[in-house]
Amino acid sequence: MGVPRRAGPVTASRRSFRLPPRAPDGRFVAVPDVRDLTTDFTHPGLYLNRELSWLEFNRRVLALAGDASVPLLERLRAIALFHTNLDEFFMVRVAGLKRQVQAGVSEPSADGLSPAHQLRSISARLRPMLSTATTTLHEQLFRLLHRHGIAVVAMADLAAHQRAAAMAYFEHAVFPVLTPLAVDPGHPFPYISNLSMSLAVTVRDHRHGTTRLARVKVPKVLPRFVAADDQTTFVPLEDLIRANLDRLFPGLDVLASHTFRVTRNADMEVDDEGADDLLMAIEEELRKRRFGAVVRLEVHSAVPDTVTALLQGELNVSDADTYHISGLLGCDDLMQLAELDRPRLRWRSWNPVRHSRLLSSPTGEPPDVFAAIRDGDLLVHHPYSSFNQSVERFLIQASEDPDVLAIKQMLYRTSGDSPIVNALIRAAERGTQVVALVELKARFDEEANLVWARELERAGVHVVYGVAGLKTHAKATLVVRRERDGIRRYVHIGTGNYNSITARQYTDVGLLTCDPALGADLTELFNALTGYGRQVQFRTLVMAPWRMREKVIGLIEQEVSAQREGERPGLIRMQLNGLTDPQMIAALYGAAHAGVEIRLVVRSICGLRPGIPGITDNVEVRSIVGRFLEHARIMQFGPDDVLIGSADLMPRNLNGRVETLLPIRDPALRAELREILDILLADNTMAWRLGPGGSWSRIRPRQGEQTCNSQDQLMVRARGASADPD
After folding, report:
1. Of 43, 117, 355, 473, which is the active-site residue?
2. Alpha-carbon torsion, ordered 223, 225, 231, 234, to 10 deg
3. What's the pTM value of the predicted model, to 2 decimals?
4. Is residue 473 flagged as an active site residue?
């Protein structure tokens, strides 16, 4: 199954171009005037850098932590997410750029930045952001927590009874786990595991007058924040250890101790085409991941230069890869405190509602999902509508139904103790033919997917690991059922993973249908993915990496034609997670230049520059960062073409993954999706607008304008559609 050769970019007449100067962090100092711009829409000056755009997304997450209108523990969660996101960014994206530099790669990305320039720009832009994160945490959030009776303090600030409780916990739970490691000519520098925090301890043997360095790992197996009383006062675990270092180094003088943290390259490189056993290849790569090169060293700002230099030398890290932090390190662990049971400090609880056609019977019996689907296609919008009582119930009912002959499903990510996986296992044990296409290369879920794959295989499920050279990112299920009038195929296609946990946290849409053409398409797709089929043309489905690029560009050009020929105003609206594919961006530039109105909601990365005079005046790019993570992919072209799918408009989705894009046929469901886009594009509370230079600004209500929080409004809308909560 080869990937089609890219079509040429949409272009107009060429004019000379003078690239505006860049600031050290990769920003353009000024947006070029249209008179200096080319309408060859592939010019680097028209593109925003992928990595720097992602950093701007994480800046928006950080801004949530500083937003006084957000509940306090949710602000703390935002700080934790900001740091978790950064960890993954360094483990994958920065690690990839460093590998390119080491390999001598100097070819620029679409925006004209070489890998080395991107690394310098990342560092320049990130350091002030980290300073803001530290200030927000220590000078705002910790102080506000203290006002609400939650204190994060040092050991020295504990009352006598609290200190006694903390010391007892140290003796009972912490001390047995610790292993001090000496660093001297007789003891080589120890291995430092990924994302682990350590204490660099300086000790002196007063008998010999020698000074040595030792390392004490802060164990990840214990809670990071130790409760010194009834869940109101917490001490960082490293501070508790620091207060007891004399127990680890008896007979020595502890002179100083400082925290440091290491991030390693954790990106996997699996040659699944050459692997005889993909499971074994993934397991081997997981073992290698532990020993990836160090890509970031974080040290407390009080660490002496001599200790920093020693760590840099032993870990092979430069100043450019070293980040000095004036507060807590490892702030991803703040999620522990964000989960405290303080309802008044969190978002008001939201219970997803059941779809109006999936309500329980008056006697309390679960809904018959198959009957509801036969009555007409169902659109589900999570977490506003219940995932458990729609998609999950669909799979559970299929697993229990003796008339179901086969269940076929694509699993990219799923949750621990997944009801859906358990349903597949039960169905196989009952004799139903079950096929699970498990993506073992789902980043950071490889180990969990290995476990599920083996459990499914033991139950008799036919487990397939996808197409060599491609990730299977599509989200689709096919249920084949024997009915009175013959075989009927039921289908679910969505934008989100089959994960009941994230279905309460991520916004996604999905379609439940028994449309015969779509059922036939999905049958042929599974046959192609599990066997040797080469089906790449379908009746309804649009698939990557085979036809999706051409289909989307064709729809864009359809709007250009409508605009130019005066049939109607051209219109393109999309909700995406990311937009970075150069050919797609060039096509959108061409459409905008032709007068097509383009309105985009892009959660994270956007390489397109809106607001360039004469080219993208009529393009708006928004991003919504709120209580739920925006994850849906919805595309609208003109008034009638509305599609949902699993793919973003990024090279990896269009070229290297199996993805689905589904045109919605039912006029009522198309109208429902257009209404969702209307609400997202009306948000003036949690939305941000992208400027031509790459900066984002918060959208606020104009004077006299009614406020609109899109996620709140969609919750109200869902309640109005169904009075039966999950």
Report:
1. 473
2. 160
3. 0.90
4. yes
